[in-house]
Amino acid sequence: MDVKRILQDVKDNRVSISEAKKQLVGFSELGFAKVDTQRKARNGYPEVIYGEGKNSKQIISIIEDLYTDKRTILATRVSTVKAKDLMLKFPFGVYHEEARCFVINPIKTNSDEYIAVVTAGTSDIDVAEEAAVTAETYGNKVERIYDVGVAGIHRLFANIDVIKNASVIIAIAGMEGALVSVIGGLVDKPVIAVPTSVGYGTNLEGITALFSMLNSCSSGVSVVNIDNGFGAAYNASMINRIKSEVRG
After folding, report:
1. Residue 105: which region, alpha, beta or left (left: phi > 0; alpha: psi -120 to 50)?
2. CA-CA distances (angstroms) from residue 189 to 6, 109, 120, 238?
3. Are residues 91 and 150 in the same domain?
4. What sequence ranges are listed for the domain PurE (predicted)?
5. Chain segment 188-245, per-residue pLDDT in tens
6. Given 104, 134, 165, which residue is the final one in a domain?
7. Total number of domains in the chain
8. Are residues 66 and 175 in the same domain?
């Protein structure tokens, strides 16, 4: 933490005393939440608001606290009911209904490197959209390739060039999760696998797909939790940013 710079900013009226206090303490005390105001400085991206389990008033309070310096705001797992309240308070924000994400001030894309978000089926698209919107919010170009599962594997091969040319691939599948191993065996890029809770009884709400992906014999595959499109996109964004910096 650059204490001297913060104090100089206060002296020069570039930063208010209250904002300087946040920067020095490292978090804001809201009573129901301690908002991490230093996460961007530590990790490269600001704190993300997990909307599930929070009411509209709580989400609004956190956004107001985080947005004081025009940070990028991403709230995930926001229901349509809560989204209506957020849009009334922040009409300049955007609600992505399928992704269940509310976004303010997304980072502008400044690279030709892109992340490929690939799904096995149409039923996986809600998780895929959470991944795609998260990646786009953090300044990444995204290519969506949906419904190319192994039950009709010719659909995958018809799109393989777009997938191969991505800097990183997010592969999303339910059922038995076979798509991930197939993609992992065809590309020379990192593959981040997302098991989904889509499938019949023995899918076990995503456990079967999770175990299948963890046991993939394809090299270069890493796995996030069930339905965790956000987590996959966060990791993909970090990889994409590093590759862009190296090439730039």
Report:
1. left
2. 41, 21, 18, 14
3. no
4. 113-245
5. 999 999 999 999 999 999 999 999 999 999 988 999 999 999 999 999 999 988 776 6
6. 104
7. 2
8. no
Tokens of 34: 């301690």
Nearest partner of 229 among 137, 91, 159, judged by Cα: 137
Is 224 found in the same domain as 123? yes
End-to-end Cα distance, the chain: 27
- Residue carrying the six token digits 């990192």: 190
Tokens 């998260």 belong to which residue? 134
Domain end, chosen from 53, 73, 104, is at 104
- Among 121, 235, 226, CA closest to 179: 121
Sign of the Cα torsion 228, 229, 231, 235 reads: positive
Residue identified by tokens 């890029």 is 189
Of 210, 43, 224, 44, the residue nearest 131 (C-alpha)? 224
